[in-house]
Hints:
By secondary structure, the chain is of the alpha+beta class. It has one domain. The chain contains five helices and two strands; from the N terminus they run αβαααβα. A two-stranded antiparallel ribbon has the order 1-2. The protein is globular. The two termini are 18 Å apart.
Amino acid sequence: MREQIYSIMESDPETIFDPMSVDFSTFEFTQGYYNHRLTQKEIEKSYILSYQYYGDINYEDIILLVNNIPDIFEVPVGVEIKIPKINDINAFILKNTK
């Protein structure tokens, strides 16, 4: 995830942000989202979600944090989560790095 944030921030490489310090409760689903029910396999390997929706494993933390899931292993199988559209993720990152 950090690599994605840094690549988006290339316009200002002098400033480094810690993605874990961002308030993800302000995330806005302006482009919509995908509903997804978690399987046991996805709970054990949550990077699968990121790869399935974005073709990249680096968005795993963002998916969990926008769903207010600090620990994926505490979530029961079958819980429905929202998978944000990539444009919303990029907009959120840009908004929170200024």
